[in-house]
Specification:
Elements (H helix, E strand, L loop, with lengths): L15 H22 L13 H26 L2 H5 L11 H13 L2 H5 L3 H32 L4 H15 L4 H4 L2 H23 L3 H15 L13 H18 L22
């Protein structure tokens, strides 16, 4: 990483090694509280067979982690920076949040959800809110500003905050084994897309919304007594692949052109 530059912004300073430690504690909070409150669902093909399983296996652990992140941001005194991030991008990047929101809405398994109890559906929606708020505050909130304050370029801020976001999901290896490694790689790319959503919206509410709805769409077939595969999920997965290819091709055209990039040199008048 590049050496940190002098930083005179308000609030406490947080170096990236300390941020990594905070992320470890954050993951530990989710895993630890989950062990204390969780219920066994091994006999079901569904990830969340009942509303109670969503509450005890996800909402309570993630809710506690949100309180932890809120405490961290408050202690740092970074709320002004975390909530608003005014770094412009080129107009084509707007299609990232637009396409993700569209795919998530189309990818929801509406038929399967219509057969579930109202309590389970409400818990699923609340789970989307919790995930969006908690993970975005930690990684696009604290994480982005840690690397920004360290003097890194926007490209490296996006890269390292996304890598840490993916590594944090390796904690799922305790419950899902080796497949969590592949999930961490995929999550890292999603983190990059959420970072672009932050740049497009200029406020953290947009990536929170996109992230929450994206996860609800992915989980919508995995609730209830029995999981129900849904073809609409192909749209969500397919869009992720398209966005990865698009960003590999156009990664150098994310930043807006400099004001002087299109200036033409005026001819020097001839000397008499």
């Amino acid at each position: 990483m590049e050496p940190a530059e002098a930083d005179n912004r308000a609030g406490r300073r947080l170096s990236w090694p300390w941020f990594l430690l905070i992320v470890v504690v954050y993951v530990g909070v989710i895993q630890g509280v989950g062990l204390l409150t969780g219920v066994e669902t091994g006999g079901s093909t569904s990830q969340f067979p009942t509303a109670q399983s969503i509450v005890r296996n996800a909402l309570i652990p993630i809710g506690v982690s949100i309180l932890f992140v809120v405490a961290v941001v408050t202690w740092l005194g970074w709320w002004g920076e975390v909530l608003v991030y005014r770094v412009p991008v080129r107009r084509w990047v707007r299609w990232v949040p637009i396409s993700m929101l569209t795919a998530a809405l189309l990818g929801l398994n509406y038929g399967h959800l219509s057969r579930q109890s109202a309590a389970l559906v409400v818990c699923l929606l609340v789970l989307g809110v919790f995930v969006g708020v908690g993970e975005e505050l930690m990684f696009r909130g604290v994480g982005v500003h840690v690397f920004k304050r360290a003097g890194l370029s926007e490209g490296k801020v996006a890269l390292w905050s996304s890598v840490v976001f993916g590594l944090a999901h390796l904690g799922n290896a305790f419950g899902h084994g080796a497949q969590a490694v592949g999930q961490a790689v995929i999550v890292s790319t999603s983190g990059y897309f959420f970072y672009l959503c932050l740049r497009v919206g200029g406020v953290i509410l947009l990536p929170m919304l996109v992230h929450g709805l994206w996860d609800v769409s992915l989980i919508s077939s995995l609730v209830g007594a029995k999981a129900a595969p849904y073809p609409g999920l192909v749209l969500v997965v397919g869009l992720q692949v398209v966005l990865i290819v698009l960003l590999l091709v156009r990664r150098r055209s994310i930043e807006p052109a400099r004001p002087d990039a299109h200036r033409t040199l005026e001819p020097t008048p001839p000397t008499p």
